[in-house]
Amino acid sequence: QVQLVESGGDLVQPGGSLRLSCAVSGFPVAHYSTGWFRQAPGKEREGVSCIRDKNGFTYYAHSVKGRFTLSRDNAKKMSYLEMNSLKTEDSGVYYCWIAGLWGQGTQVTVSP
């Protein structure tokens, strides 16, 4: 059974940092693109970052470039999103994604 389980979401002040983790089971991570999306209340889900499977190129949304870092450990089947200099507009539910599969999400709230 394929499962994606996110963790690491929390309440943090502006300027703070968080590290989100995504554990994948029942699926070979190494040969697929993986990424993170987020959805704020009343807004559509948007892509945050993605690692391409073919060349390892990492894409970042303009709004997070320079602040967020995506990485993955193929051997451990883990994906990580390191988030620094967080802003209130980064708040939302963050979802891990791989090959069309989604996790259940983890809540990130950035508030004074």
Largest sheet: 7 strands, mixed
Give the terminus-to-terminus CA distance: 40 Å
Order of helices and strands: EEEEEEEEEEE
Number of helices: 0
Query: How many beta strands in the DSSP annotation?
Result: 11
Helicity range: under 10%
Question: Which residues form runs of ≥5 with pLDDT under 50?
Answer: none
Average pLDDT level: 94
Please tell me what the overall shape is. Answer: globular
Query: Which class best fits the helix and strand makeup?
Result: mainly beta
Structure explained in plain terms:
This protein has 112 residues and is an all-beta fold. The protein is 0% helix and 50% strand. It is built from no helices and 11 strands. Strands 2, 4, 5, 6, 9, 10 and 11 form a 7-stranded mixed β-sheet that branches. A 4-stranded antiparallel β-sheet has the order 1-3-8-7, with no helix packed on it. A hairpin with a 4-residue loop joins strand 7 and strand 8. The radius of gyration is 13 Å and the shape is globular. The termini are far apart.
Task: Produce the secondary structure layout.
Elements lengths: L2 E5 L3 E2 L5 E8 L8 E6 L6 E6 L6 E3 L7 E6 L4 E6 L8 E7 L2 E2 L3 E5 L2
Parallel strand pairs: 2-11
Antiparallel strand pairs: 1-3, 3-8, 4-5, 4-9, 5-6, 7-8, 9-10, 9-11
